[in-house]
Each structure stands twice: as structure tokens, then as C-alpha cells.
Amino acid sequence: MSVASSYAQAFYLSQEKSPNLVASVLSAKNALFELTDMIQQTKELRIAIETPAVSTEEKVKIIEQIAKKAGFSDAVGVFVGLIAKKGRISFAKEIALELEKISAEAEGKVVGEVLAPELVDEAELKDLAVSFEKKLGKPVFLRQKKDPSLLAGLKVTLNGVTYDGTLRSQLSRLKEKFIEYKTRGMN
Predict the structure, then answer these.
(1) Looking at the domain 3-103, which fold is it?
(2) N or C: which end of the chain has fewer CB within 10 A?
(3) Tens of pLDDT along 8-55?
(4) What are phi and psi of 163, to 5 degrees?
(5) Nearest partner of 9 among 98, 86, 109, judged by Cα
(6) Which one, of 69, 67, 75, 70, lies nearest residue 25 by Cα?
């Protein structure tokens, strides 16, 4: 289990008896994404969080102040404070993604990932999810990542199975068929 999934699982379990479990997890996920964006967009904050010259106690105070000013719930404020105290703020985005996955799975959804050379627009992503929902018979939640190394097409991974519709894989299959055809023709 990764660091991010351990923290996400711990937060989820801490909120499991909460009457607003889904809202609490959604709030934590959004807060972690917001915190990540703040750190990335503010040079001074990024330096303060990343430099070893700033003590852990000072980093925790900074994160707690941000949580308070941003209006994070008490549970989320304590959680981000804990992450800061443990020196894991650099994992905030990954923890948010894991929370997203855990909550989707708790709702009975299949969580998948779409890799494409450019981000797919929301309508296409929704159509893709609907196609897989029909195939799997379960609701599908798709996250997407940009992978510029792909020339064209998509690669979708669901439940450990990858559906590769990238140009590279199509050319590879074409090459194999050509070699097979050529080999049969020579015999």
C-alpha cells in the first residue's frame, strides 16, 4: 500500500461512522486539491513547505493557518495538519486522488484511468464511461491523465485490465499481422 493510499484509507476510516461520510470525504479531497494548488502557485509557500530550513512545527502552523483561512472543516483541518506533521504534504494530491478512488468504490463504482496525449473533454469522458458501464454492468468513474508520449488514441485501465486503443498499439498489431501474412506467403 502506498503512502497516499494509507493516509486516504486512514481518513476514510476515521470518518466512516460520520452521518455525512460522502460529504466529508469529498470535502477532504477538494481541500487537498486546493492546498496542492496553493502550494504550487505561491512561490513563498512552496519554498516554506519544501525547504528543510523551516522546522516541521512551523510547517504545521502554516498549513493549519491555511486550513483555517480556507474554511476547511475541523476534521479536514486536523487531517492536513497531521499530513504536515508527518512531512507528507508533498503527497497531498495523491492522497486526494486516493480519496476519490475510495469513495467511488464505496459507492459501488468501478474506478478507471484514461491516458491520452491531451486531456479528453468531459462529454467524451462521460461517453467513454457509459460505454464501459454497459460492458461491466456497473457504474464507472474515470480519471484522466495526460501522457504526451502517446501519439494518439486512448489507453483505459479498469480493474487492472488495460484497453489499449493508442496509435502505437494499433501500429504494433498491424505490424504483427503484416509479418504473419508475409511469413505465410513465403511458406
Answers:
(1) Peroxidase; domain 1 (1.10.520)
(2) C
(3) 888 888 887 877 777 788 888 888 889 888 888 989 888 888 888 888
(4) -105, 110
(5) 98
(6) 75
**What is the overall mean pLDDT for the chain?**
84
109-186 CATH fold: Glutaredoxin (3.40.30)
Pairwise CA distance, residues 81 & 61, whole Å? 8
Is the Cβ–Cβ distance between 3 and 11 less than 8 Å? no
Strand-pairing partners, residue 153, are 166
Strands 140-146 and 161-166: unpaired
Task: Give the per-residue pLDDT at 13.
Answer: 84
E-strand stretches of 49-169: 110-116, 140-146, 153-158, 161-166
Looking only at the bridges linking them, the beta strands covering 153-158 and 110-116 are: antiparallel
Beta strands in the chain (DSSP E): 110-116, 140-146, 153-158, 161-166
pTM, entire model: 0.69
What radius of gyration do the chain's Cα atoms show? 21
